[in-house]
Amino acid sequence: MTIPVQRTRRPRPHPRDEELGFGKFFTDHLFRADFTEGNGWSGARVEPYGPIALDPAASALHYGQEIFEGMKAFPSPKPGGGIALFRPRAHAARLAASARRLAMPPPPEDLLLDGVRALLREDASWMPRAPGTALYVRPFLLATEPFLGVRPAKTYALVVILCPVGGYFSGPPRPLRIWVEEERARAARGGIGAAKAAANYVASLLAAEEAKAHGFDQVLWLDGAEHRFVEEIGTMNFFAKIAGRVLTPALEGTILAGVTRDAIVALCREMGLAVEERRLPLLEVLAAGQDGTLEEAFGSGTASLTAPIGELASPRQRIAVPSPQGSLAGRLRDALSAIQRGEAPDRFGWMEQV
Description:
By secondary structure, the protein is an alpha+beta fold. Helices cover 24% and strands 30% of the residues. The protein has seven helices and 17 strands. The protein has helices at residues 59-63, 88-101, 109-122, 198-213, 259-270, 282-291, 328-340, and strands at 29-36, 40-48, 66-68, 71-75, 83-86, 134-143, 155-165, 176-181, 218-222, 230-233, 236-242, 245-249, 274-278, 294-301, 305-313, 318-320, 351-353. The strands form two sheets. Strands 1, 2, 3, 4, 5, 6, 7 and 17 form an eight-stranded antiparallel sheet that branches. A six-stranded mixed β-barrel has the order 8-9-10-11-14-15, surrounded by four helices. It is globular and about 60 Å long.
């Protein structure tokens, strides 16, 4: 697909790699395409980054039809350089699945990925180079029809923006302190918990802010019905290594099917580790912490790859989680990073050249 480009007349200064953090800086351009019921997708273009005009009655503002994705691009190690994306087709498929769950038109894979590639080529100079950095790709889809009524909108905008990023968590790497939320629920069986919808994230904010006010980094959510089973951390999937087995909650419609989660499961199995994707009772994790069989726990996600957990705390008890030298979380992070940056063979076919 040939995508027209309108270049900015006001290029922005590029931040230094050490200034990046996560989600603070944005590149000079964005990609956009629009959908109208009956006519489909049209108007694909790259244009200068700037505010998006929305009618005050736009459906996204009133009824929450808004979803997003997040993937990463890295300098390509191939001759001639360029840019490589980590598992873009998996992210495109997840965006389409989220769209269907929220009664939105799924963007065709080629439209989305051609737009991402065109935008990356235009803003390639924004790619950071320091270890641990990347160019974060944020596609999102929102309902734009001006209409006050509870039904799916008839018009939508697909937009992609880019963000040079460093680490997700501030400060030097350290094990995270996680608060176990036993009262509130992020998602319920039969709901939209498996969609990457804005609504799922706003549902987590109050508990996360309260946890941070008490010195914790994030919240571990339990199932919405019984508050017995581990689901996910606010921005990450959850893993625990207990008695040599790697355990992670099953994908039963209430948690996000993490692309990094899937990669970690593949890497663990390649390492010869037993991986169990199943309902994971919180009491099983806490009991393992008390009897010494909990070897480590960590979160996984696009932003952080893996993040070790050093403490799990609830109103009833607290357990210190081991952070061993040569931890599985560290080995997985290093293995994923090496594949992403071309320092190890891409034996799973995860990287795609732009």
